[in-house]
Amino acid sequence: MTPLDILCEVFSGRNKIHLEKMMIVVLLLAGLVWQANACLQRIDQTPGVQDASKLISRGENFDDVEQIVEALGLSTDDWSLEEGPKRQIKYDLTRQRLNLFYEGLRVRGFTLQASINSDDEYTGAVSGFIPTITNLDLTAGAGVRRREVKQALAQYVNDNNVRINQGDIDTKDLSHFSFDRQIYVDFSTGKASVVFYAKALVNIPNYIRSPRALFDGNLNLIKGRLSVRNKGTSGCPNALGGNLQFPGLTYGSGPGETCLNAKVRGKTCILRSKRFVIKDVKCKMDRREAEVVKFNCEDGLNDSSNGGNSPNADSFYYAQVFYDVLKTWGKQTSPFDDKTTTLYTHYAKHPNAFWDGVAVTFGNGDNNVFPYSVKEIIGHELGHAITEDSGNMVFDGESVAVDESFADICGKAISAYLDPSYNWKFADNLIRSARDALRYFDDPTKDGRTIANVNEFQTVASDHPALGVGVFDKFFYLVNDAGVPFNSAFEAVVLANRIYWHGETGFYDGACGVLRAANDLGQDVYKYKSSFLQVGIDLSFCCLDGTA
């Protein structure tokens, strides 16, 4: 065991700290520079893991995924692959994500990627990692019933966020509840176990949460996350966007005005499309009282509040723009083609916005911020919907940081798509105070809290992992500054999210996924490597064998 291993154990709290280890730590802290990145999770360093790209000879072709399983040297009686999202890449190939199953159970955190040629055959280009699973008790949790998992999830919510003066959360408060029996592999030990992955939505007055949790076969909590925190006659109707400090678009049908493309029924305009619908909470805390925004087309739309001119109009318009960005630059449109996504506006005097796993909610702001329904925040929250649809990044601090940065990139993409002269401030039309933006891509540390290098993550990991957002934000700025156009870098990040990332993705695995996506698209991977290195992520371990 190296001194650095001891430090990682001490600070991660995984092992009991003995006196001799404490003495070593004291000596190390006196004369050793702390290498925080060594404590960050690395799927490629998981004990027993196999690199799929090393197991299949290049040039082999396969008719189906079962043949890939055999070529990997795995038993088809135990292992199977499920076809996931796919994207056409260079050389007339299609890149597809393959979800890994063992004995019929989804293996969390492990996916493969394969290429399909013009003859609809899988080639030998297969990448990803496969865990070694031995002595696994497949009967664990077999007798557990749905109501018991639901009770465990409700208890998790109660243990982590009590409803003040309103009693406990009960199972009846959990809507959109689902659970799945899966296999979880601990990246630090390589040990596999059968778990329950459960998720739901809590949507009651004064309290909205979207809990996700992993439980072992006895319904003991492994880890969880509460992803929302409260503090307390024409389809071109007239409306004014923006807010008092930052003028926005003028909506209407006249010259120089922007059409909202609202749905029209008789004389009534409705902010609903095939993909998005706006519901106004009218400054209340209970979203169940929200109403679809309808108004007389001739009168136009006037929902000014807290300095925002028309949060309803801006939310509807920029959501449609984000769909266009995703289609044009990201080369994919899921999940917004599959169902209508609800955007709630004017949510009380709430200084935040959030995606809860089902819908987006925009707080009405407070004395420090305008209503949160500004273009980059709208793109940010809809970016979370993409990650949710991909089944990615649920729990750990690193995953939270990567998820938040992906959402930031989605928000900034709206500005870059609409205006080639965009800047690198994030949500610079939201803040009322002297501070001129919510975050900064070019210098994330400018806000005095956010980090910009992966080696600093341990300082924020325990209490505020979202402050790690600056690592990938800064990378994205750097790769653009290195000459990769915004739309190209955006396409690579979206492709990584859809094909390479998974439910346990951290900084290193996420960065490697971006590099592989850039390679799939025929981009200059050296610019990506250099940019990641500048935020402390050395991708020399990230092998492109098995990719296109």
UniProtKB/TrEMBL annotation:
NAD found in the keyword field: no
Transferase among keywords: no
Peptidase M4 domain boundaries: 260-388
A biological process term (GO) from this entry: proteolysis
InterPro entries: Peptidase_M4, Peptidase_M4/M1_CTD_sf, Peptidase_M4_C_domain, Peptidase_M4_domain, Zinc_Metalloprotease_M4
Pfam families: Peptidase_M4, Peptidase_M4_C
UniProtKB keywords: Hydrolase, Metal-binding, Metalloprotease, Protease, Zinc
Taxonomy, superkingdom: Eukaryota
Limits of the Peptidase M4 C-terminal domain: 392-537
GO molecular function: metal ion binding; metalloendopeptidase activity
UniProt signal peptide: none
Membrane-spanning intervals of the chain: none
Similarity comment: Belongs to the peptidase M4 family.
The name this protein goes by in its record: Neutral metalloproteinase
